[in-house]
Amino acid sequence: MLRKYIWVFIVSMVPLIELRGAIPIGVKMHLPIVPVYVIAVIGNMLPVPVIFFFARKVLEWGKDKPVIGKIFTFCLEKGKKGGDKLKQKAGRGLFLALLLFVGIPLPGTGAWTGTLAASILDMDFKSSVIAVMLGVLLAGVIMWLVSAGVFGALEAIF
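Predicted structure:
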């Protein structure tokens, strides 16, 4: 049983999969949902400080390298352009925009991408982590409901 929880924890730390994949995996393994939710949230949040403080530095370091330079430069430029647009549209609502970006479980959104965006936008660490954490909690609840079949049941009713 411990191996199953470790699997949920590890999957929740993987970029792009994160807790959006870890919770359904835990449910599929017939684990109780509350511990799966808690473990997935912890696993998803664990890399956030590392991403916030080091991902941008790694991208900036690698932008001049021969093999990886173009990819890293693209990531930095795309993040900067997207961040500037988000800042213009969100204005003071940048915190809420980041929370919703992380919280709506769509491909390419999540704690990894949201934290990298916050780093590129030069948001402060505390508000970034809080927005990402609330977004992860929201995404976890949504995935919990989806995994439990609540949306399927509602669809059948209506």
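Summary: The mean pLDDT is 88.
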